[in-house]
Amino acid sequence: VQLLESGGDSVQAGGSLKLSCRASGFIFSRCTMGWERQVPGKEREFVSTISPSGTTRYADSVKGRFIISRDNAANTVYLEMISLQTHDTAAYYCTKEAGVYCQDKYWGQGTQVTVSS
Questions:
Q1: How far apart are CA 83 and CA 102, in angstroms?
Q2: How far is 49 from 79, CA to CA, in rounded Å?
Q3: Nearest CA-CA partner of 35 in 94, 79, 101
Q4: pLDDT confidence of residue 103
Q5: What per-residue string of b and e applies to 51-60 under the rule 16 or more CB within 10 Å gives b?
Q6: For residues 35 and 68, what is the distance between their CA atoms, to the nearest angstrom?
Q7: For 52-94, how does the pLDDT look when each residue is reduced to its tens digit (9 = 90+)?
Q8: Handedness of CA 58, 64, 7, 56 (dihedral sign)
Q9: Phi, psi at 51, each rounded to 5°
Q10: Terminus of the chain with fewer CB atoms < 10 Å: N or C?
């Protein structure tokens, strides 16, 4: 399993970014995919998931600002982030969630998002 994130950058508060995660090594279309984030010294936290059928879930802190989507033909999951705030600063990790057809949970290497005021 490989999960390769991209799109992290430094932006000013109020700005936007779109993260991408290209997956390989498993049947992408059968797996729930997601994003988590982590700030140094804190626990990694849930951001969002999207099921194979497209059902989405979001952390309360990002609802209305972040949109998760997937392209099964491209084996890619996206996280579009708007109205970014300084508290969104974190390393963002793509996840392959555990499931009947998806075995264990995996994380990518992460991509850094820094939001300055």
A1: 33
A2: 10
A3: 94
A4: 86
A5: ebeeeeebee
A6: 9
A7: 999 999 999 999 999 999 999 999 999 999 999 999 999 999 9
A8: positive
A9: -80, 170
A10: C
100, pLDDT greater than 90:
no
Three-state DSSP string of the chain: CEEEEECCCEEECCCCEEEEEEEECCCHHHCCEEEEEECCCCCCEEEEEECCCCCEEECCCCCCCEEEEEEHHHCEEEEEECCCCHHHCEEEEEEECCECCCECCEECCCEEEEEEC
For residue 40 the two structure tokens come to 């140094």
What CA–CA distance (Å, rounded) separates 115 from 82? 11
Q: Which residues contact 83 (CB under 8 A, 6 or more apart)?
A: 14, 16, 65
Cβ–Cβ < 8 Å for 25, 2: yes
Region at 82 (left for phi over 0; alpha for psi -120 to 50; beta for the rest): beta
